Amino acid sequence: MTGPIPFDDRYDEPDQLRDQLRRILRHRALIALGILLGVLGGLALSLQRAHTYSATSEVLVRSTTDPFGAVGVSADNQVSMSTEQRIAASAAVALRAARLLGRPESQAGALGARLRVTNPQKSQVLRFEFTAGEPQRAARGANAFAEAYLADRKSRNDATVRRATRGLDQQISGLNHQLANGRASNKSAAQNQLYNLQKRLLDIKSRDTDGGDVVREASAPAHPAGPGLRTLTGIGAVCGLLLGIVLAWVRSALDNRVRSVGEAQAALRAPVLGLLPSDDGGDHALLTVGRSRSPRTEAFRALAFRLRQTGGPAGPGRVLVVAPRTVADAEEVAANVAAALAEDGSDVVLVDTAPDSTSLAEQLPLMPYEAPTLEEAFLPAGSVLVDIDVVGRFAFSSGGGTGSYGRMASVEGLASSVVVTGPFLGHADALAVAQRVDGVVVVAGLNRTRRDDLRQIQELVGCSGGRLLGVVLDAGRPHRRMGGVLRRRPRFGSASHGDPSGMALPSQDGSFSVSHR
Questions:
Q1: Contacts of 65 (CB under 8 A, 6+ apart)
Q2: DSSP states of 247-309 as a string?
Q3: What confidence tens digit (pLDDT) does each residue in 73-117 have?
Q4: pLDDT per position as a tens digit, 359-370
Q5: What distance in Å separates the CA atoms of residue 66 and residue 63, rounded to the nearest whole number?
Q6: 376: burial class by Cβ within 10 Å (0-12, 13-18, 19+)?
Q7: What single-letter DSSP state applies at residue 374?
Q8: CA atoms of 255 and 266, how far apart (whole Å)
Protein backbone atom coordinates (compact mmCIF):
# COMPACT_ATOMS: atom_id res chain seq x y z
CA MET A 1 0.00 0.00 0.00
CA THR A 2 1.81 3.08 -1.30
CA GLY A 3 -0.78 5.77 -0.71
CA PRO A 4 -3.87 6.64 1.27
CA ILE A 5 -7.05 4.72 0.59
CA PRO A 6 -9.88 6.92 -0.73
CA PHE A 7 -13.05 6.92 1.37
CA ASP A 8 -16.35 8.62 0.91
CA ASP A 9 -15.92 11.27 3.56
CA ARG A 10 -18.83 13.66 3.86
CA TYR A 11 -16.62 16.31 5.43
CA ASP A 12 -13.61 16.06 3.11
CA GLU A 13 -14.40 18.96 0.75
CA PRO A 14 -11.98 21.40 -0.87
CA ASP A 15 -14.34 24.29 -0.23
CA GLN A 16 -13.39 25.71 3.15
CA LEU A 17 -16.70 27.53 3.52
CA ARG A 18 -18.65 24.32 3.01
CA ASP A 19 -16.41 22.50 5.44
CA GLN A 20 -16.93 25.21 8.04
CA LEU A 21 -20.69 25.02 7.53
CA ARG A 22 -20.67 21.28 8.07
CA ARG A 23 -18.61 21.71 11.22
CA ILE A 24 -21.26 24.07 12.53
CA LEU A 25 -24.12 21.76 11.57
CA ARG A 26 -22.61 18.99 13.68
CA HIS A 27 -23.79 20.90 16.74
CA ARG A 28 -27.47 21.05 15.81
CA ALA A 29 -28.47 20.90 19.46
CA LEU A 30 -26.78 24.25 20.15
CA ILE A 31 -28.47 25.79 17.11
CA ALA A 32 -31.84 24.48 18.27
CA LEU A 33 -31.12 25.83 21.77
CA GLY A 34 -30.35 29.27 20.34
CA ILE A 35 -33.59 29.28 18.32
CA LEU A 36 -35.54 28.22 21.40
CA LEU A 37 -34.00 31.01 23.49
CA GLY A 38 -34.75 33.53 20.74
CA VAL A 39 -38.38 32.46 20.47
CA LEU A 40 -38.79 32.57 24.25
CA GLY A 41 -37.23 36.03 24.29
CA GLY A 42 -39.64 37.21 21.60
CA LEU A 43 -42.60 35.80 23.53
CA ALA A 44 -41.41 37.47 26.74
CA LEU A 45 -41.00 40.81 24.97
CA SER A 46 -44.45 40.54 23.40
CA LEU A 47 -45.98 39.77 26.80
CA GLN A 48 -44.16 42.73 28.32
CA ARG A 49 -45.45 45.08 25.63
CA ALA A 50 -48.94 43.58 25.63
CA HIS A 51 -50.15 46.30 28.08
CA THR A 52 -48.33 49.22 26.46
CA TYR A 53 -50.27 51.58 24.19
CA SER A 54 -49.08 54.59 22.21
CA ALA A 55 -51.15 57.48 20.86
CA THR A 56 -49.95 60.22 18.52
CA SER A 57 -51.05 63.80 17.93
CA GLU A 58 -49.57 66.26 15.44
CA VAL A 59 -49.16 70.04 15.62
CA LEU A 60 -48.46 72.40 12.72
CA VAL A 61 -46.06 75.05 14.00
CA ARG A 62 -47.15 78.47 12.70
CA SER A 63 -44.54 80.95 11.54
CA THR A 64 -44.64 84.40 13.10
CA THR A 65 -42.71 87.42 11.85
CA ASP A 66 -40.19 88.77 14.30
CA PRO A 67 -40.81 92.52 14.59
CA PHE A 68 -37.10 93.06 15.10
CA GLY A 69 -36.06 90.60 12.37
CA ALA A 70 -34.45 91.55 9.13
CA VAL A 71 -36.67 92.49 6.21
CA GLY A 72 -36.87 89.91 3.42
CA VAL A 73 -36.42 86.77 5.54
CA SER A 74 -39.01 84.11 4.64
CA ALA A 75 -41.44 82.94 7.30
CA ASP A 76 -40.27 79.32 6.99
CA ASN A 77 -36.73 80.24 7.88
CA GLN A 78 -37.88 82.14 10.94
CA VAL A 79 -38.94 78.89 12.68
CA SER A 80 -36.21 76.56 13.91
CA MET A 81 -37.89 73.13 14.10
CA SER A 82 -35.01 71.58 16.02
CA THR A 83 -35.40 74.30 18.67
CA GLU A 84 -39.15 73.87 18.80
CA GLN A 85 -38.68 70.09 19.13
CA ARG A 86 -36.48 70.59 22.17
CA ILE A 87 -38.91 73.06 23.70
CA ALA A 88 -41.80 70.62 23.17
CA ALA A 89 -39.92 67.99 25.20
CA SER A 90 -38.86 70.44 27.91
CA ALA A 91 -39.86 70.39 31.56
CA ALA A 92 -41.96 73.56 31.17
CA VAL A 93 -44.25 71.88 28.64
CA ALA A 94 -44.41 68.72 30.79
CA LEU A 95 -45.48 70.86 33.75
CA ARG A 96 -48.32 72.42 31.71
CA ALA A 97 -49.37 68.94 30.52
CA ALA A 98 -49.47 67.64 34.09
CA ARG A 99 -51.83 70.51 35.02
CA LEU A 100 -54.07 69.73 32.04
CA LEU A 101 -54.21 66.06 33.04
CA GLY A 102 -54.95 66.92 36.65
CA ARG A 103 -51.73 65.37 37.88
CA PRO A 104 -49.47 66.76 40.62
CA GLU A 105 -46.58 68.86 39.40
CA SER A 106 -44.21 66.34 40.94
CA GLN A 107 -45.27 63.82 38.26
CA ALA A 108 -44.31 66.09 35.38
CA GLY A 109 -40.94 64.36 34.99
CA ALA A 110 -42.55 60.92 34.82
CA LEU A 111 -44.99 62.12 32.19
CA GLY A 112 -42.19 63.64 30.14
CA ALA A 113 -40.34 60.33 30.17
CA ARG A 114 -43.29 58.71 28.37
CA LEU A 115 -43.29 61.34 25.60
CA ARG A 116 -41.40 61.18 22.33
CA VAL A 117 -41.36 64.26 20.09
CA THR A 118 -40.33 63.91 16.45
CA ASN A 119 -40.23 66.18 13.43
CA PRO A 120 -40.90 64.63 10.03
CA GLN A 121 -38.28 65.63 7.52
CA LYS A 122 -38.89 68.83 5.54
CA SER A 123 -42.03 69.78 7.43
CA GLN A 124 -43.16 72.18 10.15
CA VAL A 125 -45.06 69.47 12.00
CA LEU A 126 -44.27 68.22 15.47
CA ARG A 127 -45.43 64.69 16.32
CA PHE A 128 -46.25 63.95 19.97
CA GLU A 129 -46.23 60.21 20.83
CA PHE A 130 -47.29 59.36 24.36
CA THR A 131 -47.11 55.85 25.88
CA ALA A 132 -49.31 54.60 28.70
CA GLY A 133 -50.72 51.40 30.13
CA GLU A 134 -54.27 52.10 28.86
CA PRO A 135 -55.46 53.29 25.43
CA GLN A 136 -57.50 56.21 26.81
CA ARG A 137 -54.65 57.45 28.99
CA ALA A 138 -52.30 57.34 26.02
CA ALA A 139 -54.68 59.45 23.91
CA ARG A 140 -55.26 61.98 26.70
CA GLY A 141 -51.54 62.29 27.33
CA ALA A 142 -50.70 62.96 23.66
CA ASN A 143 -53.43 65.60 23.34
CA ALA A 144 -52.43 67.20 26.63
CA PHE A 145 -48.83 67.62 25.53
CA ALA A 146 -49.91 69.07 22.19
CA GLU A 147 -52.12 71.63 23.93
CA ALA A 148 -49.42 72.36 26.49
CA TYR A 149 -46.90 73.04 23.74
CA LEU A 150 -49.27 75.41 21.89
CA ALA A 151 -50.04 77.23 25.13
CA ASP A 152 -46.34 77.54 25.91
CA ARG A 153 -45.57 78.88 22.44
CA LYS A 154 -48.46 81.37 22.64
CA SER A 155 -47.18 82.64 25.97
CA ARG A 156 -43.73 83.11 24.46
CA ASN A 157 -45.18 85.03 21.50
CA ASP A 158 -47.29 87.20 23.83
CA ALA A 159 -44.22 88.00 25.89
CA THR A 160 -42.42 89.07 22.72
CA VAL A 161 -45.33 91.36 21.78
CA ARG A 162 -45.37 92.92 25.23
CA ARG A 163 -41.67 93.65 25.12
CA ALA A 164 -42.00 95.20 21.66
CA THR A 165 -45.04 97.35 22.43
CA ARG A 166 -43.63 98.59 25.73
CA GLY A 167 -40.92 100.59 23.98
CA LEU A 168 -43.32 101.92 21.31
CA ASP A 169 -45.76 103.08 23.96
CA GLN A 170 -43.02 105.05 25.65
CA GLN A 171 -42.03 106.76 22.36
CA ILE A 172 -45.64 107.61 21.46
CA SER A 173 -46.26 109.02 24.94
CA GLY A 174 -43.20 111.26 24.64
CA LEU A 175 -44.23 112.66 21.24
CA ASN A 176 -47.79 113.33 22.42
CA HIS A 177 -46.45 115.26 25.38
CA GLN A 178 -44.23 117.41 23.15
CA LEU A 179 -47.06 118.18 20.74
CA ALA A 180 -49.45 119.03 23.56
CA ASN A 181 -46.99 121.49 25.16
CA GLY A 182 -45.98 123.01 21.84
CA ARG A 183 -42.36 122.18 22.35
CA ALA A 184 -41.95 120.37 19.05
CA SER A 185 -39.60 122.34 16.76
CA ASN A 186 -41.10 120.78 13.67
CA LYS A 187 -44.68 119.97 14.32
CA SER A 188 -45.27 118.33 10.95
CA ALA A 189 -42.27 115.97 11.34
CA ALA A 190 -43.31 115.06 14.86
CA GLN A 191 -46.82 114.21 13.69
CA ASN A 192 -45.44 111.99 10.90
CA GLN A 193 -43.21 110.18 13.37
CA LEU A 194 -46.14 109.71 15.74
CA TYR A 195 -48.23 108.29 12.93
CA ASN A 196 -45.54 105.76 12.00
CA LEU A 197 -45.09 104.63 15.60
CA GLN A 198 -48.83 104.19 16.08
CA LYS A 199 -49.07 102.22 12.83
CA ARG A 200 -46.22 99.96 13.88
CA LEU A 201 -47.79 99.43 17.30
CA LEU A 202 -51.07 98.52 15.67
CA ASP A 203 -49.35 96.00 13.38
CA ILE A 204 -47.64 94.29 16.29
CA LYS A 205 -50.81 94.09 18.37
CA SER A 206 -52.87 92.80 15.47
CA ARG A 207 -50.47 89.89 14.77
CA ASP A 208 -51.79 86.39 15.68
CA THR A 209 -49.76 85.03 18.56
CA ASP A 210 -51.13 81.48 18.45
CA GLY A 211 -48.29 78.94 18.35
CA GLY A 212 -49.88 76.67 15.76
CA ASP A 213 -52.73 74.33 15.02
CA VAL A 214 -53.51 70.76 16.01
CA VAL A 215 -53.78 68.94 12.70
CA ARG A 216 -54.26 65.49 14.23
CA GLU A 217 -55.80 64.67 17.56
CA ALA A 218 -54.78 61.46 19.27
CA SER A 219 -57.35 58.70 19.58
CA ALA A 220 -57.35 55.61 21.76
CA PRO A 221 -55.30 52.88 20.01
CA ALA A 222 -56.97 49.54 19.38
CA HIS A 223 -53.79 47.46 19.62
CA PRO A 224 -50.68 47.54 21.84
CA ALA A 225 -47.67 49.49 20.70
CA GLY A 226 -44.81 47.94 18.81
CA PRO A 227 -44.67 44.79 16.69
CA GLY A 228 -47.21 42.07 17.26
CA LEU A 229 -46.75 38.60 18.67
CA ARG A 230 -45.94 37.01 15.31
CA THR A 231 -43.41 39.67 14.38
CA LEU A 232 -41.60 39.53 17.71
CA THR A 233 -41.58 35.72 17.63
CA GLY A 234 -40.12 35.75 14.12
CA ILE A 235 -37.49 38.30 15.07
CA GLY A 236 -36.66 36.26 18.16
CA ALA A 237 -36.30 33.11 16.06
CA VAL A 238 -33.92 34.85 13.64
CA CYS A 239 -31.84 36.30 16.48
CA GLY A 240 -31.86 32.90 18.19
CA LEU A 241 -30.66 31.27 14.97
CA LEU A 242 -27.75 33.69 14.81
CA LEU A 243 -26.99 33.01 18.47
CA GLY A 244 -27.11 29.26 17.89
CA ILE A 245 -24.77 29.54 14.90
CA VAL A 246 -22.29 31.53 16.97
CA LEU A 247 -22.47 28.98 19.80
CA ALA A 248 -22.07 26.10 17.36
CA TRP A 249 -19.07 27.79 15.72
CA VAL A 250 -17.41 28.36 19.09
CA ARG A 251 -18.12 24.76 20.09
CA SER A 252 -16.70 23.41 16.83
CA ALA A 253 -13.61 25.58 17.22
CA LEU A 254 -13.01 24.22 20.74
CA ASP A 255 -13.91 20.61 19.87
CA ASN A 256 -10.79 18.42 19.68
CA ARG A 257 -12.45 15.11 18.80
CA VAL A 258 -12.00 13.23 15.53
CA ARG A 259 -15.09 13.66 13.40
CA SER A 260 -14.01 12.82 9.84
CA VAL A 261 -11.54 10.92 7.70
CA GLY A 262 -9.64 14.09 6.88
CA GLU A 263 -9.15 15.02 10.52
CA ALA A 264 -7.88 11.53 11.37
CA GLN A 265 -5.44 11.51 8.46
CA ALA A 266 -4.17 14.98 9.31
CA ALA A 267 -3.66 14.16 13.00
CA LEU A 268 -2.02 10.73 12.54
CA ARG A 269 -0.30 11.45 9.22
CA ALA A 270 -1.32 8.00 8.05
CA PRO A 271 -4.09 6.64 5.80
CA VAL A 272 -7.47 5.52 7.04
CA LEU A 273 -7.67 1.76 6.56
CA GLY A 274 -11.36 1.32 7.27
CA LEU A 275 -14.58 2.78 8.56
CA LEU A 276 -16.51 0.57 10.98
CA PRO A 277 -20.23 1.31 10.93
CA SER A 278 -22.29 1.27 14.08
CA ASP A 279 -23.85 -2.07 14.97
CA ASP A 280 -26.96 -0.52 16.48
CA GLY A 281 -29.54 -3.29 16.60
CA GLY A 282 -27.10 -6.01 15.53
CA ASP A 283 -25.10 -8.70 17.28
CA HIS A 284 -23.35 -7.31 20.35
CA ALA A 285 -20.83 -10.14 20.69
CA LEU A 286 -17.14 -9.29 20.47
CA LEU A 287 -16.32 -11.80 17.68
CA THR A 288 -18.67 -11.53 14.69
CA VAL A 289 -16.51 -12.72 11.75
CA GLY A 290 -17.38 -16.34 11.00
CA ARG A 291 -20.43 -16.21 13.26
CA SER A 292 -22.78 -13.59 11.79
CA ARG A 293 -23.20 -11.31 8.78
CA SER A 294 -23.56 -7.57 9.14
CA PRO A 295 -22.11 -4.39 7.60
CA ARG A 296 -19.67 -4.20 10.49
CA THR A 297 -18.49 -7.76 9.82
CA GLU A 298 -17.89 -6.96 6.15
CA ALA A 299 -15.91 -3.90 7.21
CA PHE A 300 -13.62 -6.19 9.27
CA ARG A 301 -13.08 -8.42 6.24
CA ALA A 302 -12.22 -5.42 4.08
CA LEU A 303 -9.76 -4.25 6.72
CA ALA A 304 -8.11 -7.68 6.82
CA PHE A 305 -7.76 -7.63 3.04
CA ARG A 306 -6.01 -4.27 3.13
CA LEU A 307 -3.68 -5.45 5.88
CA ARG A 308 -2.81 -8.52 3.84
CA GLN A 309 -1.78 -6.29 0.96
CA THR A 310 0.72 -4.51 3.17
CA GLY A 311 2.76 -7.68 3.79
CA GLY A 312 2.70 -9.19 0.33
CA PRO A 313 1.90 -12.84 -0.45
CA ALA A 314 3.39 -14.10 2.82
CA GLY A 315 0.83 -12.19 4.90
CA PRO A 316 0.77 -9.03 6.96
CA GLY A 317 3.24 -10.35 9.55
CA ARG A 318 2.88 -9.15 13.11
CA VAL A 319 0.35 -6.33 13.40
CA LEU A 320 -0.24 -4.45 16.63
CA VAL A 321 -3.77 -3.13 17.10
CA VAL A 322 -4.03 -0.42 19.74
CA ALA A 323 -6.40 2.28 20.87
CA PRO A 324 -5.27 5.55 22.46
CA ARG A 325 -7.09 5.16 25.78
CA THR A 326 -9.80 2.45 25.53
CA VAL A 327 -8.70 -1.17 25.26
CA ALA A 328 -12.16 -2.52 24.35
CA ASP A 329 -12.09 -0.91 20.90
CA ALA A 330 -8.71 -2.47 20.06
CA GLU A 331 -9.76 -5.92 21.34
CA GLU A 332 -12.80 -6.06 19.07
CA VAL A 333 -10.89 -4.96 15.97
CA ALA A 334 -7.95 -7.29 16.68
CA ALA A 335 -10.16 -10.35 17.24
CA ASN A 336 -12.28 -9.84 14.13
CA VAL A 337 -9.33 -8.97 11.88
CA ALA A 338 -7.53 -12.11 13.03
CA ALA A 339 -10.63 -14.18 12.29
CA ALA A 340 -10.98 -12.55 8.86
CA LEU A 341 -7.33 -13.39 8.05
CA ALA A 342 -7.99 -16.99 9.08
CA GLU A 343 -10.95 -17.16 6.68
CA ASP A 344 -8.49 -17.12 3.77
CA GLY A 345 -6.88 -20.34 5.01
CA SER A 346 -4.03 -18.74 6.93
CA ASP A 347 -2.79 -19.74 10.37
CA VAL A 348 -3.34 -16.73 12.58
CA VAL A 349 -2.56 -16.20 16.25
CA LEU A 350 -4.21 -13.46 18.33
CA VAL A 351 -1.71 -12.43 21.02
CA ASP A 352 -2.81 -10.53 24.11
CA THR A 353 0.25 -8.81 25.58
CA ALA A 354 -1.55 -6.63 28.09
CA PRO A 355 0.34 -6.36 31.40
CA ASP A 356 -2.81 -7.42 33.24
CA SER A 357 -5.20 -10.11 32.09
CA THR A 358 -8.13 -8.54 30.28
CA SER A 359 -11.61 -9.73 29.47
CA LEU A 360 -10.57 -10.71 25.93
CA ALA A 361 -10.17 -14.41 26.81
CA GLU A 362 -13.60 -14.44 28.43
CA GLN A 363 -15.24 -13.04 25.30
CA LEU A 364 -13.71 -15.50 22.79
CA PRO A 365 -15.23 -18.96 22.14
CA LEU A 366 -12.07 -20.84 23.12
CA MET A 367 -11.87 -24.59 22.71
CA PRO A 368 -10.81 -26.78 25.68
CA TYR A 369 -7.04 -26.93 25.85
CA GLU A 370 -5.39 -30.08 24.52
CA ALA A 371 -1.82 -30.93 23.71
CA PRO A 372 -1.10 -29.70 20.16
CA THR A 373 -0.99 -32.31 17.39
CA LEU A 374 1.41 -32.31 14.49
CA GLU A 375 -1.06 -30.26 12.43
CA GLU A 376 -1.22 -27.72 15.22
CA ALA A 377 2.53 -27.34 15.52
CA PHE A 378 2.21 -23.78 14.33
CA LEU A 379 0.72 -22.84 17.68
CA PRO A 380 2.98 -21.05 20.12
CA ALA A 381 3.38 -22.70 23.49
CA GLY A 382 0.33 -22.16 25.69
CA SER A 383 -2.00 -21.13 22.83
CA VAL A 384 -5.60 -22.26 22.52
CA LEU A 385 -7.65 -22.67 19.37
CA VAL A 386 -10.71 -20.49 18.90
CA ASP A 387 -13.95 -22.28 18.10
CA ILE A 388 -14.92 -20.49 14.90
CA ASP A 389 -15.98 -21.61 11.42
CA VAL A 390 -13.05 -20.52 9.24
CA VAL A 391 -10.89 -22.24 6.61
CA GLY A 392 -7.61 -21.61 8.38
CA ARG A 393 -6.67 -22.03 12.01
CA PHE A 394 -7.24 -19.29 14.54
CA ALA A 395 -5.54 -19.46 17.93
CA PHE A 396 -5.40 -17.21 20.96
CA SER A 397 -2.38 -16.64 23.17
CA SER A 398 -2.46 -14.62 26.38
CA GLY A 399 0.79 -12.89 27.29
CA GLY A 400 -0.18 -11.19 30.49
CA GLY A 401 2.18 -10.69 33.37
CA THR A 402 5.90 -10.93 32.62
CA GLY A 403 5.51 -13.21 29.61
CA SER A 404 4.70 -10.51 27.08
CA TYR A 405 8.08 -10.52 25.38
CA GLY A 406 8.10 -14.31 25.40
CA ARG A 407 4.78 -14.37 23.58
CA MET A 408 6.12 -11.91 21.01
CA ALA A 409 9.17 -14.11 20.42
CA SER A 410 7.00 -17.22 20.00
CA VAL A 411 5.08 -15.73 17.04
CA GLU A 412 8.06 -14.34 15.17
CA GLY A 413 7.99 -17.14 12.62
CA LEU A 414 4.27 -16.82 11.78
CA ALA A 415 3.14 -15.18 8.57
CA SER A 416 0.10 -13.63 10.27
CA SER A 417 -0.31 -12.66 13.90
CA VAL A 418 -2.42 -9.92 15.44
CA VAL A 419 -1.18 -8.43 18.68
CA VAL A 420 -3.37 -6.47 21.08
CA THR A 421 -2.20 -4.68 24.19
CA GLY A 422 -3.45 -2.11 26.66
CA PRO A 423 -4.17 1.53 25.79
CA PHE A 424 -1.20 2.97 23.96
CA LEU A 425 -1.11 6.17 25.98
CA GLY A 426 -1.88 4.43 29.26
CA HIS A 427 0.75 1.63 29.37
CA ALA A 428 4.47 1.94 28.70
CA ASP A 429 4.61 -1.69 27.46
CA ALA A 430 2.55 -0.72 24.40
CA LEU A 431 5.42 1.32 22.98
CA ALA A 432 7.87 -1.50 23.64
CA VAL A 433 5.60 -3.96 21.78
CA ALA A 434 5.23 -1.48 18.88
CA GLN A 435 9.01 -1.69 18.32
CA ARG A 436 8.85 -5.47 17.84
CA VAL A 437 5.98 -5.74 15.33
CA ASP A 438 5.86 -5.18 11.58
CA GLY A 439 3.18 -2.51 11.75
CA VAL A 440 0.84 -0.62 14.06
CA VAL A 441 -2.88 -0.07 13.45
CA VAL A 442 -4.60 2.58 15.58
CA VAL A 443 -8.30 2.28 16.40
CA ALA A 444 -9.97 5.68 16.86
CA GLY A 445 -13.58 6.31 17.78
CA LEU A 446 -15.47 8.87 15.71
CA ASN A 447 -16.67 11.69 17.93
CA ARG A 448 -14.78 10.13 20.87
CA THR A 449 -11.02 10.07 20.24
CA ARG A 450 -9.13 13.34 20.61
CA ARG A 451 -6.92 14.55 17.79
CA ASP A 452 -4.17 15.34 20.28
CA ASP A 453 -4.04 11.65 21.25
CA LEU A 454 -3.53 10.64 17.62
CA ARG A 455 -0.75 13.19 17.20
CA GLN A 456 0.94 11.87 20.34
CA ILE A 457 0.76 8.28 19.05
CA GLN A 458 2.23 9.35 15.73
CA GLU A 459 5.15 11.05 17.46
CA LEU A 460 5.83 8.13 19.80
CA VAL A 461 5.69 5.46 17.08
CA GLY A 462 7.83 7.57 14.76
CA CYS A 463 10.46 8.24 17.42
CA SER A 464 10.62 4.54 18.39
CA GLY A 465 11.26 3.44 14.82
CA GLY A 466 7.92 1.65 14.46
CA ARG A 467 5.83 1.53 11.32
CA LEU A 468 2.43 3.13 11.44
CA LEU A 469 0.13 1.37 8.95
CA GLY A 470 -2.93 3.54 9.44
CA VAL A 471 -6.01 4.21 11.50
CA VAL A 472 -9.39 2.50 11.73
CA LEU A 473 -12.34 4.77 12.48
CA ASP A 474 -15.04 3.20 14.61
CA ALA A 475 -18.52 4.69 14.58
CA GLY A 476 -19.12 3.06 17.96
CA ARG A 477 -21.16 0.30 19.53
CA PRO A 478 -23.59 2.27 21.69
CA HIS A 479 -25.69 -0.70 22.82
CA ARG A 480 -22.96 -3.15 23.64
CA ARG A 481 -23.89 -5.01 26.84
CA MET A 482 -20.69 -5.33 28.79
CA GLY A 483 -22.62 -6.69 31.73
CA GLY A 484 -23.53 -9.79 29.77
CA VAL A 485 -19.94 -10.15 28.64
CA LEU A 486 -18.62 -10.08 32.16
CA ARG A 487 -21.18 -12.67 33.25
CA ARG A 488 -20.09 -15.08 30.51
CA ARG A 489 -18.31 -18.15 31.86
CA PRO A 490 -14.92 -19.17 30.39
CA ARG A 491 -15.03 -21.87 27.75
CA PHE A 492 -12.08 -23.85 29.03
CA GLY A 493 -10.23 -24.77 32.22
CA SER A 494 -11.55 -24.22 35.69
CA ALA A 495 -11.84 -21.17 37.81
CA SER A 496 -11.89 -20.69 41.49
CA HIS A 497 -15.40 -20.79 42.92
CA GLY A 498 -14.49 -18.28 45.55
CA ASP A 499 -13.23 -15.65 43.04
CA PRO A 500 -15.34 -15.20 39.91
CA SER A 501 -12.63 -13.06 38.35
CA GLY A 502 -10.17 -15.94 38.20
CA MET A 503 -9.64 -17.64 34.84
CA ALA A 504 -7.52 -20.71 33.98
CA LEU A 505 -5.18 -20.18 31.02
CA PRO A 506 -2.51 -22.52 29.68
CA SER A 507 1.05 -21.39 30.21
CA GLN A 508 4.00 -21.94 27.86
CA ASP A 509 4.83 -25.39 29.33
CA GLY A 510 1.25 -26.65 28.85
CA SER A 511 0.13 -26.29 32.46
CA PHE A 512 -2.64 -23.98 33.66
CA SER A 513 -2.16 -20.73 35.50
CA VAL A 514 -4.86 -18.62 37.08
CA SER A 515 -4.81 -14.88 36.47
CA HIS A 516 -6.68 -12.51 38.74
CA ARG A 517 -7.85 -8.98 38.01
A1: 75, 78, 207
A2: HHHHHHHH--B--SHHHHHHHHSS-EEEEE---TTS---S--TTT---HHHHHHHHHHHHHHH
A3: 455 556 788 888 999 999 999 999 999 998 888 888 889 898 999
A4: 777 888 888 766
A5: 9
A6: middle
A7: S
A8: 15
